[in-house]
Design goal:
Its EC number is 2.1.1.228. It is found in: Cytoplasm. This protein is of the alpha/beta class and about 240 residues long. It folds into 2 domains: about 150 residues, SPOUT methyltransferase, trefoil knot domain (Alpha/beta knot); about 80 residues, tRNA(m1g37)methyltransferase, domain 2 (Trp Operon Repressor, Chain A). About 35% of the residues lie in helices and about 15% in strands. It has 10 helices and 9 strands. A 5-stranded parallel sheet has the order 2-1-6-5-7. Strands 3-4 form a two-stranded antiparallel sheet. A two-stranded antiparallel ribbon has the order 8-9. It starts with a strand and ends with a helix.
């Protein structure tokens, strides 16, 4: 996969070039192309923004340098803009994007884009109902969530399948050595060697996180219908979900 990023601050993307994603870059499992769209300005001061028509606070990013930066790319694949008014990013979107051959992100700054920039994009995406100083951090989050799903990026092929949100649930609690730390013991089932019981325990532990996820009642009812059949189900879970 190739990922292009149009940004005014390419140096901010250093974290994507270390750890597992960095090794993926070295192994050519994905490619990161950072494009500073300030390089495509034509005035002597390299302005990328201007005051909004009709007045108002702040400065608005101009379409011209962004369009020229896009035109300079041999190809773009799906074009994504980060903006507060976009649809909220989630794991399903990361899974879909990970199947693409190429993605291009456009990072906003200042008071946002000239509205005509949005017409250049295939998707406008947000990471939540809050405001940041620019689109670089949201873009890095989405790239991380997407690239880690590319085969070979993570050491264990099962990892992205078992982790939080992959099946609509948060990940189950995890434990490692020591088995007993200051009286806090690892659940006995995890040391039993019975993998079927371990899988059941993990699934029903993950169910306890449902209220925090804000799942709708119908989703909970469907999941809990099967949960009651488990030996790890208890009446307290019914009270937790008020069923």
């Amino acid at each position: 996969m190739k990922i292009n990023v149009l940004t005014l601050f390419p140096d901010m993307f250093t974290p994507l070039q270390v750890s597992m994603l960095g090794r993926g870059l070295e192994d050519k499992k994905w490619d990161l192309n950072l494009v500073n769209f300030r390089d495509f300005t034509t005035d002597v001061h390299h302005h990328v923004d201007d005051t909004p028509y009709g007045g108002g606070a702040g400065m608005v990013l101009q379409i011209m340098p962004i369009k020229k930066a896009l035109d300079s790319l041999p190809s773009t694949g799906k074009i994504i803009i980060t903006a507060p008014q976009g649809k909220t990013f989630n794991e399903k979107m990361a899974q879909d994007w990970a199947k693409e051959d190429e993605l291009t992100f456009i990072c906003g700054h200042y008071e946002g884009f000239d509205q005509r920039v949005y017409d250049l994009a295939d998707e406008t995406v947000s990471i939540g109902d809050y405001v940041l100083t620019g689109g670089e951090l949201p873009t890095m989050s989405m790239i991380d969530a997407t690239v880690r799903l590319i085969p070979g990026i993570l050491g264990n092929a099962a990892s992205p399948v078992e982790e939080s949100f992959s099946h609509g649930l948060l990940e189950y609690p995890q434990y490692t050595r020591p088995a007993d730390f200051e009286g806090q013991k690892v659940p006995e089932v995890l040391t039993s060697g019975n993998h079927q019981k371990i899988d059941e325990w993990r699934h029903y532990q993950a169910l306890t996180f449902l209220p925090a996820m804000g799942m709708i009642l119908l989703d909970i009812l469907v999941l809990m219908k099967n949960a009651r059949k488990s030996p790890y189900f208890n009446a307290g879970m019914d009270r937790t979900y008020r069923l």
